[in-house]
Structures are given as structure tokens and as C-alpha cells.
């Protein structure tokens, strides 16, 4: 029973992830990749339609969405895009540090500083330091 | 070794015995009855809720923008943290509060605690015996969206949550 439930719960977590509830980090990741692809395409004077055609079997709207970070291309597609745009794969992948949220706020918990998104950090601060014993 | 800790299932079962199993389970009422303050707050979308234990002041913050069904799961999850881990985590704490953060994407925090809190939440919101009772009254046609939706509504959980629960309990065929 416990094992069954555990599996069930893991599935719930997975399904929530699958339904597109992404972390801010992941949102930022795909936005940055998209921005870089778009920049390179524009440099080459290529339209979205032309790029879609070169990659074969892809719709223009997919390019639009990838560039906006809304669609998440599999690694092989990313390689294809880079190849067509004359890029190295590393050129489109942001560094981990770039993805660390600049807006995150440190909160002291158990003597250690941990970073949280601003609204949550504010509530945490209030609950940790606020009145009451 | 210290005495065996209660499992998430046993803790959920105890609560249901005390507070009853009327549907939908009054998760907010049960939580408040444990001396916990629930606060509906504007939080980042990636954050479902949080639990801060500060001496006698225990607060669960819930993301007010999320769907009510999700909020119910969040409250149950945080209640699970409090009941299952509030004690053990305090050991590591001196004066400061214990903070557990519900963030699906977070790799921080211990995986075990997250899983246990979720097991607890599922067992509290969707007790197995009540599910079986409901099914006896209204057999479910897995191909009928409306009947699954109706059942989910009775428990105050998402269609996806009840579907997974039914499947894992072996009450729906897993194709």
C-alpha cells in the first residue's frame, strides 16, 4: 500500500510538472535559448518560415514559439537549429549562473542564508521575524 | 532505536477518525484544529505554499492564486510536514524557526520529507475506504469524463489527482 501510494504521489508531482508548471529557472532557460536563436537568425537575414523549411517538417509557428521560449525543443532539434544557423551548441546554452534568479532574496533560516523568490521571501521574513513567540 | 514513528498513512487515518470523513474532507478545519494558522497569500506561481514553525506559532501560507483544489492539497501537504517532520527537524534548530518550502521544482529540501507529505495529503483528501464506498454507490466509467469529474468534485481534488489515485488503488484499469 505504501509503495503504491508513493508511486501515486510521484505521479502526481510528475503530472503537475508535465502540465507546464515550470520553475522560474526553466522559464528563463528557454527564453534565453530562444532569444539567442532569434538573434542569430536575424543576423543571417533569415525569416522564421525559411528556418522552419530548412529544418524540415517544422511549422513557422514552432519557430515563433521556440524563439519566445514557449516551446521547448528537444536536444536534437536544438542541434539542427544550431547547425543551420552556423552556431555551436554552447552558443545558445546559457551558463548556470545566468539562470540564477537575480531577483531572489536571501532569508536567514537556521543560521543559513537561503534564497527565495521575493514575495515568498517577504512572507517568510514576516513569519520568522514577526511578533509572537 | 527510538520508538517507531507513525507512518504518513497512520497519521492521516488518525485524523480522519477524529474529525470524520464527510466529503469533501475539511482540510482547512482539521489544520486549524491543530493550532495552525492558514494564510492565503500572494506568492510566486512556482510556490504552492510554505510552513513556518516558530515556537507555538505555526503558520501555513497558501498561494491564493492557485486553484482551490490545489490549495487544498497544499494545505494537506503542509499539515503533513508539520505532523510528520515538525518534531524531527526541530532537532537541528536552536532558536530559529523551522521552514519547509513546497516548491515542486526545488531540488532543495529532503526528497523523503516531500514524498511523505504528499502521501499524507493524498490519504487525507482521498481516503481509500471512502473512495471504495463512493464507487460502490456510483460505479465509474473510466471513459466517461463526467463521472470522473463528479467524483473529483466530491473529494475536492483535481480530476488528475483522483484518476491517479483510482488507478494506483487498482480501481481503474491501467492500460
Radius of gyration of chain A, CA atoms, in whole angstroms: 21 Å
Predict the CATH topology of the largest domain in chain B.
Arc Repressor Mutant, subunit A
CATH class of the largest domain in chain B: Mainly Alpha
Count, helices of chain A = 8
The global form of chain A is: elongated
- Strand order within the widest sheet of chain B? 1-3-2-4
Derived from helix and strand composition plus strand pairing, the structural class of chain B reads: alpha+beta
What's the total count of β strands of chain A?
A: 2
Short synopsis of the structure:
The complex is a heterodimer of chains A (133) and B (175). With 133 residues, chain A is mainly alpha-helical.
Structural summary, described in words:
The complex is a heterodimer of chains A (133) and B (175). Chain A is mainly α and 133 residues long. Helix content of chain A is 64%, strand content 8%. In chain A, helix 2 (24-43) crosses helix 4 (60-68) and helix 3 crosses helix 4. The longest helix of chain A has 20 residues, at 24-43. Chain A starts with a helix and ends with a helix. Mean pLDDT of chain A is 80; it is low at 1-20. With 175 residues, chain B is α+β, with helices and mostly antiparallel strands. Chain B folds into 2 domains: 8-125, Orthogonal Bundle (Arc Repressor Mutant, subunit A); 128-175, no CATH class. Chain B is 50% helix and 14% strand. Chain B contains 7 helices and 4 strands, in the order ααβββαβαααα. Chain B has helices at 8-19, 27-33, 68-90, 111-125, 128-137, 145-155, 159-168; strands at residues 36-41, 49-54, 57-63, 98-102. In chain B, strands 1-3-2-4 form a 4-stranded mixed sheet. The model of chain B is unreliable at 90-99 and 103-109 (pLDDT under 50). Chains A and B meet through helix 1, helix 2 and helix 8 of A and strand 2, strand 3, strand 4, helix 4 and helix 7 of B.
